[in-house]
Amino acid sequence: MTDRGTLIVTGAAAGIGRAIACALAADWPRIALVDLDAARLDDSLAAVRAAGAEVAAFGADLAQADAADSVVDAVRRRFGPIGGLVNNAGILKQVPLSDTDCADFDLTVAVNLRAPHLLIRAVAPDMIAAGMGAIVSVGSSAGKTGGSSSQGVYGMTKAGVICLTKSWARALAPHGIRVNSVSPALIATDMIRGLEQFASAVPLGRLGQPGEVAETVAFLMSDRAGFITGEDIDVNGGFLMD
User: Fold this and answer.
1) Tell me: the pLDDT tens digits for 137-147?
2) Domain count across the chain
3) 194 lies in a domain?
4) How far apart are CA 133 and CA 232, in angstroms?
5) 128 lies in a domain?
6) CATH number at residue 136
7) Which of 54, 131, 166, 169 has the fewest CB neighbours in a 10 Å radius?
């Protein structure tokens, strides 16, 4: 099997991020798990290691503008060139738009939109040198619908993730690098705690599971999706059909 380099998964301490790292462990022999607090990654480290990959944890506050370059440099020193990136880290503050202050707005934009851009920029040189690479960013159906009345800023940033994906896909396609995104809705994670009552709005009649998002990401990161780039894939049980 061709060595595709090292994979970085952000927001990997739990939920969708942990499921993604586990789903990709068979295809990526070296995986770097990134989260705000590296100490929270212990369970994820054990799970990914059990799935067969060499794995290490890296703490990074992706709200900080210099965090992307710093964590990518640290991963590169530990494992070598970066061949894959999954931008999963995100933040959701349930605040009506009229009550959203500048601090919350800036934090949400920094984590959900600026950080994925900066991380892609940081890993791109390794992928360009290798002539291949795969990147997936996690968006949200809120980026297409605006989300609930208290998710306005979150929805704005996730719409930006979808556009960011297309822009980077065009820029990196000549180098053999694919860039895609997935847009989940109503997945059973801590982020949607308190919103379970909306499961009745899902045509399939249930919440999604982190593993179902992870399997979609695993496909997009694999050679099976070798002719797919610049796409956003809905994983929402029919909640949004577009």
Assistant:
1) 999 999 999 98
2) 1
3) yes
4) 17
5) yes
6) 3.40.50.720
7) 131
